[in-house]
Amino acid sequence: MAFSVRGKTQTALSDINITPLVDVVLVLLLIFMVTAPVLQSGVQVAVPQTRQVNQLTEEHLVVTIDKDQNVFLQDKPVNIHDLPSILAANPSNEKKVIYVRADQAVPFGAFASVMDAIKQAGIANISIVTQPIQK
Predict the structure, then answer these.
(1) Is 102 exposed, middle or buried (0-12, 13-18, 19+ CB in 10 A)?
(2) Beta partners for 62?
(3) Are residues 66 and 105 located together in one domain of the fold?
(4) Is the pTM of the predicted complex or chain greater than 0.70?
(5) Are 127 and 100 in contact (CB under 8 A)?
(6) Which of 36, 46, 56, 135 is the most exposed place for a label (fewest CB within 10 A)?
(7) Which strand (E) or helix (H) includes residue 31?
(8) By residue range, what is the domain housing residue 85?
(9) What are the φ and ψ backbone dihedral angles of 78, each rounded to 5 degrees?
């Protein structure tokens, strides 16, 4: 399609300018790269490795013990003496199921204390989180 303006012929600009599109895509990519590590669990623990690991698909409460023997409930630090009352009063745990993530450097005594606190809350279905052995 050509236009005539005072003797000059001009053509219509039919190309799409993709520069703004590329800018927006790169900004979104940068945002996702920065926020993706934040979405993972906040407490870093090196869970023990086992040969057989069952994939669990349901979401339940998670008690984490880090290598310094700090106890966390859903990424929030808690006192081990307050853990039974907090778990018993939690309305989101009507199935009475809990996952325990413990660092492999945690002594058995600290692990047993957390297990005892969970049992005091009336929770008998306890799953221990592990990861598969890397071959």
Answers:
(1) buried
(2) 99
(3) yes
(4) no
(5) yes
(6) 135
(7) helix 19-35
(8) 49-132
(9) -135, 155
